[in-house]
Amino acid sequence: MGLDIRVVADIPSDLFYTDEYFDKHLKEFSLSRTFCNLYFTYQNYLDNSEFIQISKIIGVDFTPLLKMASYPSPEYIEAMLEIEAKTEEEKTQLLKNFEREKLESKQSIADIKVLLRQLHQKLERIENLQDLIKYNEYHKERFYRYFEDFVIDVGDGYIGNNFGQDVRNFIKILEYSEKQGAQNVYFDFG
User: Fold this and answer.
1) Cα angle 37-38-43, degrees, rounded to a multiple of 5
2) Which of 116, 173, 176, 188 has its CA 20 to 30 A from that of 13?
3) Tens-place pLDDT, residues 159-170
């Protein structure tokens, strides 16, 4: 068991989850669990995280990607209202805060596509990314192979992906979402 990461678009689920989505879901529209683990290195190591090191190596600001994780789920909102809101006033204030968090976490598909294409163009020219990273704790065992062979798809779309394949899948998810009428995306975890 582990935590998975999913890109969510700002359109109704019946428009997003079409036959095309299900035909391509695992092969082209999934991000690997390793990508999720890489993404969360930021929470523990901040600017020394492997995720941010990549940002610095290629000179691309990953802030929009980091913002995508702060979207509060309905379950989280419900739990926090039960725990934190003792009065209607507190409930109203919490709901306002959650709406602000939702707005801040939704990122423009166009902007994220530009960011990911810059990332891809720069990393496809670096043959040894895995050797440029200063790994934290036991992370070399987890990520070294993940950073190898950026230009080659080595996994099945979810299991065994490398970083390059996850970046390309992320771009495909955005293109599909845009085609379905979405304008913004955020991350969901589960």
Assistant:
1) 85
2) 116
3) 889 999 999 999
